Amino acid sequence: MPRSPILPLAMALLTTLAGQAQTVERLLAEGDSLLAQQRFSKAVEVYTRAITQHPSATTYTARARAWYAMDRTDRFLQDVEQALKADSTFAEANYQRSLYALRGEDHRSAERFSDRGLRNGAVGRLRAQLLLVHGEALAELRRPELAIADLRDGLVQIPDDLDANRTLARMLDETGDHEGALVVLERLCALEPRNPGHWTNRGFELSRLGRWTDALGMFEQALDIDKDEPVALSNRAYALLHLDRNEEAWKDVERSLRYYPANAFALRTRALLRLRKGDLEKACADLSLARILGGISDVDALIQEHCATVPGRR
Questions:
Q1: CB within 8 A of 231, min separation 6: which ones?
Q2: Is residue 301 assigned to a domain?
Q3: How many domains does the chain have?
Q4: pLDDT, tens only, 95-128
């Protein structure tokens, strides 16, 4: 009985496919190496050859990485969409799509794509990246407790992500966990020691805990970097007020308002200093403007307490 030709043909096909897979794997490794060397255009060429050999979620996602590094957002998005068409569950493609949505402030899409990536086998650093995008999206969608959990989890593996640390500190402050926010802000101060905003925010959290002397030290660190930074000046004035150093507080708050006249916090502090001086009418004028500008919870109570007898200030 003659031998069937099917087996040799199948073997030949398997051999061809195996060789093609090895070629694609080699091209992807070469492209990744070029990308690490920041030879972006060359990496695109190599990834394109991989796509020609085998168009798939893996190969399109690889080239998308190079487009992203080159800031070619249009081409990046085209390749990500091709990858998702090939495999809608591919974790890295979902991460790339969620990152694009987050940068475009499409927070619902960012949450949806990052969630899909997390549910479909993301591990290691990729899982951490997806958690950070998911957490940042949840923060903007006003789901702070879930955002905090995701951001903390992702930052275990990627502790130096500045955006995620800033968002986590903000969420912890908003939920009243000032001790937790302090831990994150200490990390930010270590990562970016020349950023006065981190020192100012750290001082603000200490102020929320009533640790006025410690807070003062943080504001002074910020002002050593930028002596005219109006938010740091305003916050230092408020700390000095609580330490009964009124003359120093007055100088700081006046300087703050010179650089930032619409600073409601500085207006509240100046009003409190004016109340101590007995200048009720001007204090109430400051409080009224602070209420119009908004964002300070105790202004209404201060107006009710001190300004009931001042015409037009209730």
A1: 197, 200, 256, 260, 263, 265
A2: yes
A3: 1
A4: 999 999 999 999 999 999 999 999 998 999 999 9
